[in-house]
Amino acid sequence: MSRNKNYIFNDRTLLYEIRKRSRASRVFKSAAIFALSIGMSVLYFWLYTSVFGLELPKTVLLKKQNAEWCSKMEVMNRQLDRYEDALTALQMRDDDIYRSIFGMHEIPAEVRNAGFGGVNRYSYLDGMDQNGLLKSTTVRMDVLTKKSYVQSKSFDEVAQLAKKAGDMASCIPAIPPINPDPSKYRLSSSFGYRTDPVHGRSTRHQGVDFALDSGNPVYSTGDGVVESVKFEFFGYGNQVVIDHGFGYKTRYAHLKNVGVVEGMKVKRGECIGESGNSGKSTGPHLHYEVIYKGSPVNPSNYYDLTITPEEYGTMVQNTADMSEKLTLHPSHRKKSGRRS
User: What is the 3-state secondary structure (H, E, C) of 70-120?
Assistant: First the structure.
């Protein structure tokens, strides 16, 4: 049967007759059906969402997937909390124990947190999630990655020094520069700001002063190499600077005379000169400095003045005996020399 023809029964002729439909009627009927279907769809959507308060299947699926990802990121953030606590503990142990043992400076906070301020490098994540969870998680991961790298490099530095711990123990300036016999000296000036005894103004004293008679022996406080021997008329007078390696140097100033030369290797407890009153000085004394990585530090943190004169004398004598043996057997001196 043709779609454009209708067969109707004529009750007069008792025959089926063909009646053709016009094009306009066909178009109108199709448009009416289409409009009716659109209307029914809109009505269904309105009833589904507004009247019954239901969500579309696709919206439900997307919300479900979003909830799953939010749950995963929350789990990840809880793990990051544990990792951050563990890393913080490692940082505290590194600064307070490991680096302190080897005389290393703490790593500044600005170094550990470098590279996470200023320009917003995460702007591409703005607007991707309403609660900002994705952005905050990404930032935390980057911060922990950088901090972990800095901590790893710090442990590498500590490990390198640990391998040289034996050499370092003998090189650190760890004894007083004079025999601490209370009857022969007094501490006339400590480390820090004081009133200058010559000019009368407040200045920073970069060492400690031992007031004692001229001619008292002055000893190297650690193994090292004599870096310089010089005289300053308006300054330290006769002075010796010893490089102990590992970032440490010591200065012995206002000496009466000097018993070492530049480039000479010295041992802890070896006599390097005698106390005096040379240079800018108001009386006989020894000015002693400890310098770590180019900056003066408080020498009193490195020596113990409670050691008895007898114990100090025994140590000095042992050093003298060892030096004498090395002098008699020069082939041993090269083997026992400190590695730089």
Answer: HHHHHHHHHHHHHHHHHHHHHHHHHHHHHHHHCCCCCCCHHHHCCCCCCCC
Residue 279 makes CB contacts below 8 A (sequence gap 6+) with: 231, 232, 233, 234, 235, 236, 237, 238, 239, 253, 254
Give 18-41 pLDDT, tens digit per residue. 776 677 777 787 888 888 888 888
Q: Looking at residue 339, what DSSP letter applies?
A: P
Six-digit token pair at 142? 């980057």
Backbone angles phi, psi at 184, to 5 degrees: -115, -5
Residue 267 backbone phi and psi in degrees, to 5? -110, 160
What six digits make up the tokens of 306?
């409670």
Q: Structural domain boundaries of the chain?
A: 5-51, 73-163, 175-336
Residues 6+ apart with CB under 8 A from 326: 332, 333, 336
Rounded distance, CA 155 to CA 150, Å? Answer: 9
Under 8 Å CB-to-CB from 36, ≥6 apart: which residues? none
pTM of the full predicted structure?
A: 0.54
What are the tokens at 186?
A: 């007094």
> Angle of helix 57-93 relative to helix 133-163, nearest 10 degrees?
20
Give helix then strand counts, H and E, for the chain. Answer: 8, 14
Q: Any residues with CB less than 8 A from the CB of 296 and at least 6 apart, and which?
A: 191, 206, 207, 289, 290
User: Which CATH fold would you assign to the domain 175-336?
Assistant: Glucose Permease (Domain IIA) (2.70.70)
pLDDT, tens digit, 9 for 90 and up, residues 285-330: 999 999 998 999 999 999 999 999 999 999 999 988 887 776 665 5
